[in-house]
């Protein structure tokens, strides 16, 4: 099987697995009959202190208010073709509802999953991100192949260029 097809198949399978990973565990509906949930916005930025240091942040809200009750926030980071090389980085609350962590990384295509745990919720949004031109091109090919299969990345966007 050609390398591009293997990558596309792996990406499709990974996306289906990741799409199944975002859940919350609070079955009691609110007064309007809707189940309460957490909304999360997972972001990846370049830190000012080093070219290879990336800052991962997740803004978490519950009922449109900053969610400060997370028992644990972790960022799971691994190269897209090597899930065994996973790095776990603890997130720390830097302001109400915003949890951050930094990690030094080399050029490549990565998957980051943010694991938010609280008494009532477990949410795990994921997204791809690319460091370097070659990785950005590879990510563009994966996204293009996924669009043809009508599968979207968990965050609806999919990548961050560096």
UniProtKB/TrEMBL annotation:
Residues 39-112 form the YtkA-like domain. Keywords: Signal. Residues 1-21 form the signal peptide. InterPro entries: YtkA-like_dom. This is YtkA-like domain-containing protein. It comes from Paenibacillus glucanolyticus.
